[in-house]
Amino acid sequence: MEKMPITKAGFEKLKKELDQIKRVLIPENIRAIEEARGHGDISENAEYQYAKERQSFLHGRLQEVENCLATSQIVELNGVTGDRVVFGATVSFADVDTGDTTRYQLVGPYESDVSNNRLSVTSPIGKALIGKNVGDVVRVKTPGGVREVEIIDIAVEDPAEP
Fold first, then answer.
1. Distance CA 132, CA 63 (A)
2. 62 Cβ contact list (under 8 Å, min separation 6)
3. Which of 2, 3, 29, 63 has the smallest CB count inside 10 Å?
4. Are residues 119 and 144 in the same domain?
5. What is the CATH number of the domain that holds 131?
6. Residue 114 forms part of a structural domain
7. Can you give the pTM of this predicted structure?
8. Distance set, CA 147 to CA 16, 106, 110 (Å)
């Protein structure tokens, strides 16, 4: 089984989500199913149908989070410097053609969130940036075509906050 890199903060966030599902969401859903059953004929009971669908979703998410935790390997960010792009570093780069700049922290696939500037090291851009230095121009094959980006800054963020 292949291990996926994750920050300690990302791992803790997954553990909290698992706990929330087990201790709060599933018990609430069980109560909702019981309450909906009490309303009579379950074949035409929308509340019951919704609660059963929610139950299926929650159990699927539970298995997904448990799998993520089982296949995660925490990568300590202590000692990460801004010398080159590594897991956990925050990289600013500019598109060579447009000059548009972008800033992402490189994290594992389980904690990537592009809308919060957290990019997976397994993504095409993440893979291309790893090991590079400030000033390097990197060719990245993306779904939209080949892009060239220049690394303009490498920073080390506080690893305590995801």
1. 36
2. 18, 21, 22, 26
3. 2
4. yes
5. 3.10.50.30
6. yes
7. 0.80
8. 38, 18, 25
Residues 93 and 150 grouped into a single domain: yes
pLDDT in tens, 81-137: 778 999 999 999 999 999 999 999 999 999 999 999 999 999 999 999 999 999 999
**Range from 3-12, 22-31, 74-83 carrying the lowest mean pLDDT:** 74-83
Q: What is the mean pLDDT of the chain?
A: 90
Residue 26 belongs to what domain range? 4-74
162 has a pLDDT exceeding 70: no
Domain co-membership, 20 together with 60 = yes
Cβ atoms of residues 32 and 102 within 8 Å? no
The C-alpha R_g of the chain, in whole angstroms, comes to 21
Q: What is the pLDDT of residue 160?
A: 47
Sequential DSSP letters for 59-125: HHHHHHHHHHHHTEEE---TT--SSS--TTEEEEEEETTT--EEEEEEE-TTT-BGGGTEEETTSHH
Q: Domain for residue 93, yes or no? A: yes
Quick check: is 29 in a domain?
Answer: yes
What is the H or E stretch that residue 131 is in? none
100, with CB counted inside 10 A (0-12, 13-18, 19+), is exposed
